[in-house]
Specification:
By secondary structure, this protein is α+β, with helices and mostly antiparallel strands. The protein is 25% helix and 29% strand. It has eight helices and 15 strands. The chain has helices at 34-46, 49-62, 90-93, 97-102, 130-140, 182-195, 261-269, 311-321, and strands at 76-77, 82-85, 107-115, 118-126, 146-148, 151-157, 161-166, 169-177, 220-222, 235-241, 247-253, 273-277, 280-287, 291-297, 302-308. The strands form two sheets. Strands 1, 2, 3, 4, 5, 6, 7 and 8 form an eight-stranded antiparallel sheet that branches. Strands 9-10-11-15-14-13-12 form a seven-stranded antiparallel sheet, sandwiched between helices. A hairpin with a 2-residue loop joins strand 3 and strand 4 (118-126).
Length: 323
């Protein structure tokens, strides 16, 4: 197993340090007055058995025992499991929640785990789909990653962080006490991966990005504002290398749910300039500091390139990307 240990030392991502927790009851304070106690007993006696069962179920669902969190081999959970959704995630990671909401986060389950002198916080994000999970992983990972048994990809950044992608799940490990090594981090991620649902495969949409010339590990997915342009949404991208070793970016524009390639193309055609080449209409526009970007419509996808110096280079890269 190869696990990269790269990224800036001390990187903690969006971990806030103080994790919110809930406490049931208190060990201090006066006992309820006898009248209140009698009223409580009386009300309970009047409840139907079904109502009592519902209340018990609600209590369990809000308590530590009612929240599902993986049992990670070799690690012991040291506190409660906390659960957040898209509306409450900001309570945990503050402004960083905006990026997760952009990728349609469903839930975040988080808990502290301990093994010997190492204590970590494990955040498990259900992103709904493998594409969304891959997108947030690609936005947060440092350079370098490696396959991991039973996972899609993983990266360890000693001494403080490790990231994991599997199916529709994105997991983050942030160190609370001690230091994480590449070996310890890799073993922990492998143990977590065994507990997660889904297949250890990249999202099928990545197959739309041509393989030839593609730089391995450069792939990503951005839901909004790709290349700084508001009209470019839901874009898969990767770096490509030409014959002379020059790097440039290729991408695929995916239609949103409920829309078609034709409607996406028509919308872009209304904002970009067009040119005719060999009887085909291409779209292009100048991007500050990025040179020319261009688009080509194929039966399967809308493919694009950026970083071209002129129209000749733009057309050459579009042809290379789509042949």
């Amino acid at each position: 197993m190869r696990v990269y240990g790269r990224g800036p030392a001390g990187q903690r991502g969006a971990w806030t340090g103080d994790s919110p927790s809930s406490k049931w009851g208190s060990t201090t304070g006066a006992a309820p007055p006898p009248r209140a106690w009698r009223l409580g007993v009386y009300a309970t006696k009047r409840m139907s058995p079904l109502t009592v069962l519902i209340l018990v179920a609600l209590f369990l669902s809000c308590s530590e025992g009612g929240v599902d969190f993986p049992q990670v081999e070799g690690w012991t959970r040291t506190g409660d499991v906390r659960v957040y959704d898209a509306d409450t995630l900001w309570e945990y990671i503050d402004g960083a929640a905006e990026l997760f909401v952009e990728y349609d986060v469903q839930t975040c389950r988080t808990a502290d785990l301990a093994s010997e002198d190492l204590v970590v916080t494990v955040d498990i994000y259900d992103m709904g789909t493998p594409l969304n999970a891959f997108g947030i992983f690609s936005r947060e990972r440092p350079e370098g990653g490696a396959p991991l048994p039973e996972a899609t990809e993983a990266v360890v950044s000693p001494p403080y962080q490790a990231l994991l992608l599997k199916g529709g799940t994105y997991a983050k490990v942030n160190v609370v006490e001690g230091e994480l090594t590449a070996a310890t981090g890799g073993a922990l991620l492998e143990a977590i991966a065994r507990t997660l649902p889904g297949e250890a495969a990249y999202p099928s949409q990545l197959e739309l990005l041509p393989q030839e010339g593609r730089v391995a590990g450069s792939e990503g997915y951005q839901t909004q504002g790709f290349l700084g342009l508001s009209e470019l949404t839901h874009c898969l991208y990767a770096e490509y290398s030409d014959e002379g070793g020059q790097r440039w970016q290729g991408f695929v524009v995916l239609p949103e749910a409920g829309s078609s390639l034709d409607s996406v193309w028509d919308g872009l055609a209304g904002e970009w300039e067009s040119l005719e080449h060999d009887g085909e209409t291409l779209l292009h526009r100048e991007i500050p500091y990025r040179g020319l970007a261009g688009l080509r419509r194929t039966p399967q996808a809308i493919l694009g390139v950026s970083d071209a110096a002129d129209q000749a280079e733009l057309i050459h890269r579009l042809e290379r990307l789509t042949t």
